[in-house]
Amino acid sequence: MSKINRKLLGKIELTGELECMTGLHIGASKENMEIGALDSPVVRDPITKEPYIPGSSLKGKLRSLLEKAHPKLSVDREGGTEKNHVLRHECDSWDFNDISKGAYNCPVCRLFGSTGRGDDGNNFPARLKVRDMKLTKDSKAELSEIDTGLLYTEWKFENSIDRVTSAANPRNLERVPKGAMFEFSFVYDVEDTTTLTTDLDNLKLAIRLLHDDSLGGHGSRGYGQVKMKFTKIEVKKIDYYRGEKNKNKLINDIDKIADLVAFFTE
Question: What range defines the domain where residue 243 resides?
Fold first, then answer.
């Protein structure tokens, strides 16, 4: 296997807002069973008690959508339970020419990372970092005014009916209400300019797919429709972190990828 020098040229920070078009449920573990309590609460910040969207939830969803969008990728990694085998893609090496095996040449693993099997140190750290998302200031203020009996969230009561016995099985879930806004932040490590355009194009593709899919649980029942909008893109060369001036640049449109490439090559 040939060697790859992962040299950091700089970073691109992409920030924006995620809007909940329908109620959103990203569940947290329920430690105690209480009478009249929620059957399925949402994940909350332990200090502020605000609901938030874990970066791992968004990153995992974007990765799975992008994987499905590239049908030529191999799917030979097993996951799931013994009775419900799920195949997924993950490269076991860095840079073989085969797109289904080499992480450096893989549109999914180069962006989102991979964990290679074996003891040869074939892990490929992700270029893309996805931060946890918190409520915007305005959205927090608006949600604090709603009267649902819950802090910043709403109850969602459901009732599943046994189609044979007609027995009812009621339950209640906690959701972040429609219209809630979250701040998101991606940080992309620029290691070369030859794959920069492809990586950002694939990120945009995954986000477009997410808009017609769902985030969090119960998406087939209407939960988790979201829209993401970029509000600021800041490009920073490595010398910017050394304190040099004029080594960063603001770009207001992610589609101007040519400007990003030109900035790192000038």
Answer: 10-72+126-265
Does 95 map to a domain?
no
**Exposure of 77 by Cβ count < 10 A (0-12 exposed, 13-18 middle, 19+ buried)?**
middle
Residue 81 maps to a domain: no
What is the distance between the alpha carbons of residues 253 and 71, in angstroms, rounded to a whole number?
Answer: 29
Residue 101 in any domain: the answer is no
Count of the separate structural domains present in the chain: 1
Give residue-wise pLDDT tens across range 51-65: 999 999 999 999 999
**Both ends of the chain: CA-CA distance in Å?**
32
What is the percent of the chain where pLDDT is above 70?
81
Q: Is residue 235 part of a domain?
A: yes
Measure the CA angle with vertex 173, ends 170 and 177; round to 5°.
Answer: 135
Reported for 255-263, long-range contacts at CB under 8 A and 24+ positions apart, including other chains, are 255/204, 257/196, 257/197, 257/200, 257/201, 258/197, 260/12, 260/196, 260/200, 260/235, 261/193, 261/196, 261/197, 263/235, 263/237
6's CB contacts (< 8 A; 6+ apart) are: 191
